[in-house]
Design brief:
Number of helices: 9
Order of helices and strands: EEHHHHHHEEHHH
Distance between the termini: 49 Å
Largest sheet: 2 strands, antiparallel
Radius of gyration: 19 Å
Shape: globular
Structural class: mainly alpha
Helix content: 55-70%
Number of strands: 4
């Protein structure tokens, strides 16, 4: 665990924030290259990334506060302005909404840009999960498997071996990126690549949630699993429609 990379006086550079920044920068670089290849407007990348960052942080925070609304009512200011609570699905929804608003406002073609964005999302997510690993959070349930890890200074601490679900998700996300990277030159209808990302990412998250410690809500499923199921179903229906129309 390396939650803090280095410190300059009172200012600490934390590994999670550094990995998030690196993920955004790497994704922006690949996104710009892909949009150039598709003859789209690479100058859109910077405002899209800015919108994704702002919308993502807001969406992640709102999701977190809704998830722990009782704690929020007890300490609204402390919960709202704490550094905790950057939940992925909230960030995905908030970031997507912000980017969508930007593109609609500028009257851009949504489907081909969405394909380019869908290509880089798993890459950025992999960096985020690496940050979680270095920070010692979002790990799984206890395990006796030889690759189980201990996070004695984690958030929260763990004194027994647990599933390193951060590594599972990072590996799966890089595999998803590799699949989409290979498919990006195929003659597919615009939009298919993005919906395929949602299917693969949703299936990955649905599976790994069985090893996470998140609270079960309905039918022994977590909120993240229910959202994942919706993403997979929406993606499958959308791809069938797009292929049927082409």
């Amino acid at each position: 665990m390396y939650p803090e990379i280095f410190r300059i006086g009172p200012i600490a550079v934390r590994s999670y924030g550094a990995m998030l920044a690196l993920g955004f920068l790497t994704s922006a670089f690949v996104l710009r290259s892909e949009m150039k290849r598709r003859s789209l407007k690479p100058e859109l990348v910077d405002p899209m990334v800015t919108a994704a960052v702002l919308g993502g942080i807001l969406g992640a925070k709102v999701y977190y506060l809704l998830q722990y609304w009782k704690n929020f009512l007890g300490d609204p200011l402390g919960m709202a302005f704490s550094g905790a609570g950057l939940v992925w699905y909230g960030g995905l929804l908030g970031g997507t909404s912000a980017v969508l608003w930007l593109l609609v406002r500028r009257k851009e073609k949504l489907a081909p840009i969405a394909d380019s964005v869908g290509l880089v999302l798993p890459l950025g997510y992999a960096f985020g999960r690496l940050g979680c690993l270095l920070n010692g959070d979002d790990y799984g349930v206890p395990t006796e498997l030889p690759w189980g890890m201990v996070f004695p200074k984690g958030s929260p601490p763990s004194s027994e071996r647990v599933h390193p679900t951060q590594i599972y998700e990072m590996t799966a996300s890089l595999a998803i990126f590799a699949v989409l990277w290979k498919l990006r030159r195929k003659p597919l209808p615009d939009g298919v690549l993005f919906w395929m990302y949602l299917i693969l990412a949703g299936a990955e998250r649905f599976a790994v949630e069985f090893l996470r410690t998140n609270r079960r809500v309905i039918l022994d499923l977590t909120v993240a699993q229910m959202i994942s199921a919706v993403l997979v179903l929406s993606g499958a229906i959308s791809i069938v429609i797009l292929l049927w129309r082409s």
